[in-house]
Design brief:
Chain B: It holds the Pfam family ABC_tran. The complex is a heterodimer of chains A (223) and B (205). By secondary structure, chain A is mostly helical. Chain A has a single domain (4-213), classed as Orthogonal Bundle (MetI-like fold). Chain A is 76% helix and 0% strand. Chain A contains 11 helices and no strands. In chain A, helix 2 (37-51) crosses helix 5 (87-112). Chain A is globular, with a radius of gyration of 20 Å. In chain B, strand 8, helix 5 and strand 9 (183-188) form a beta-alpha-beta unit. The model of chain B has no long low-confidence stretch (mean pLDDT 90). A 5-stranded antiparallel beta sheet of chain B has the order 2-1-4-5-6, covered by helices on one side. Chain B has one domain: P-loop containing nucleotide triphosphate hydrolases (Rossmann fold). Chain B has 205 residues and is of the alpha/beta class. Classes of the chains: A mainly alpha (223), B alpha/beta (205). The A-B interface holds A 114, 116-117, 119-127, 134-135, 138-139 and B 46, 49-51, 76-84, 86, 88, 90-94, 103-104, 143-144, 146-147.
Chain lengths: 223, 205
């Protein structure tokens, strides 16, 4: 049995989740502050992958990253990067596709923290950055954990966008979800079952872990 | 002398009201601010702290300008060297009593002094959710003192304390404020609550 698709899926999920955590924390904090029209428009764009069919998003990303497009040409010329049918392309697509799963729970948690917590820290002479790391972040850690798990699980199982951007290149872009589809097409149900069972188990283990770690939280463990 | 002359629109249950205050507070003294609910006592404390920005006005502290809306001067709260006791305490749920104080100072003997003053020595490893309302309120006061502020702003700081505890705390706190030469402005609903603690009084109406 070929384990490469599973490792590729896990590698993609780890990298995308790490990058999304770094981007998502400050972005969610910024979005949790006073609303303005440009901020609402940006938030709507970030939320779009939640409701948009993955094939639609994948199709437009394919057009945008294609070597014939302006963006694709520039990436090729300036950085010698080709995002279509490459692992790097899968990472970029996953970041766009999974961004709302990282941002939404963290933003919601920031909104529910009383303003007086940061105000108390400011009156003690602490900067915004110190307040963010010492007061705000530790008090929303259950939401951060939830966001990490949701993002990881969502990236692990993504299919439509990955297929559109990456195709089905063994060892490069053929992740586990595509291997399942591929196996079913070849009527190889044993392989399809093998990949499915492993993805099911991984997802179940991480979701149950979040429920256990967040069991003392007053809200639902996935909020 | 702290001189405040500010105008701020505040939202009340009647809609927006314009809040206008012109007052001065003596340095190294304690002044109580009292008046009916919704008159703007908390807003005034937050304006002095730099947590709320008035539409118009000036605040000077010992001839140093903290706020001048015409000249666009606004010293951030971090630079004002204040301590603030919030009405809802605003304690950090992730920190123990001791960690709250260590967040403000690294001076262990001063932390011990504060814990003794607030009768909190036995609770130093407790987190806020493990403390009673009175203990939380005392912790809020001790945390505000941990940075040795020049000005201590307290919003209803003794409301959850029983009389004996309140009397002890006010006596010890008064001594500490005198030693630190700290100016204190305390908001209270009941003008007699801070009898013997505040030398001056201002009624907002």
């Amino acid at each position: 049995m070929d384990l490469a698709p599973l490792w590729l899926s896990l590698k993609l999920s780890f990298i995308a989740t790490f990058i999304l955590l770094v981007i998502g924390l400050p972005l969610a904090y910024w979005l949790s502050k006073k609303n303005s029209i440009p901020k609402l428009i940006l938030e709507a764009i970030i939320t779009m992958p939640l409701v948009l069919p993955p094939s639609v998003l994948g199709f437009y990303l394919l057009l945008a990253f294609s070597p014939n497009s302006m963006l694709g040409k520039q990436l090729q010329t300036l950085f010698n990067v080709q995002l279509v049918f490459s692992f790097e392309g899968l990472i970029v697509a996953s970041i766009i596709y999974s961004l709302p799963f990282m941002v939404s729970p963290i933003k919601s948690a920031f909104i529910h923290l009383p303003n007086s917590l940061s105000e108390a820290s400011y009156t003690m002479g602490k900067s915004r950055v110190a307040t963010f790391f010492h007061v705000l972040m530790p008090n929303i850690k259950s939401s951060i954990l939830t966001a990490i798990v949701l993002t990881f699980a969502h990236t692990l199982g993504e299919f439509g966008v990955v297929l559109m951007i990456g195709g089905n290149i063994p060892g490069v872009t053929k992740v586990a979800s595509i291997s399942i589809y591929d196996s079913v097409e070849r009527m190889d149900y044993a392989s399809a079952n093998y990949y499915s069972l492993i993805l099911f188990s991984i997802t179940f283990i991480i979701v149950i872990t979040v429920f256990i770690l967040n069991r003392h939280s007053a809200k639902s463990p996935l909020e | 002398m702290i001189v405040v002359d500010v105008k701020k629109k505040i939202k009340t249950y009647n809609g927006f009201n314009e809040f206008r205050l012109k007052a001065s507070f003596a340095m190294a003294k304690t002044t109580k601010l009292y008046g009916p609910s919704g008159v703007g006592k908390t807003t005034l404390l937050k304006i002095i702290a730099g947590l709320i920005h008035p539409e118009e006005g000036i605040i000077t502290v010992h001839n140093e300008v903290w706020l001048d809306t015409h000249k666009k001067i606004c010293v951030p709260p971090q630079k004002r060297e204040i301590g603030f006791v919030f009405q809802n305490y605003a304690l950090f749920p992730n920190m123990t009593v001791e960690q709250h104080l260590r967040y403000g100072t690294q001076n262990s003997s001063y932390i011990q002094e504060l814990l003794t003053l607030g009768e909190m020595v036995n609770f130093k490893k407790h987190k806020p959710q493990q403390l009673s309302g009175g203990q939380q309120q005392r912790l809020a006061i001790l945390r505000a003192l941990s940075t040795k502020p020049k000005i201590l702003l307290m919003d209803e700081p003794f409301s959850a304390l029983d009389n004996a505890l309140k009397y002890n705390l006010m006596t010890n706190l008064k001594q500490l404020l005198t030693n630190l030469n700290t100016t204190c402005i305390v908001v209270t609903h009941h003008p007699f609550e801070t009898e013997g603690f505040a030398e001056n009084a201002i009624e907002l109406s």
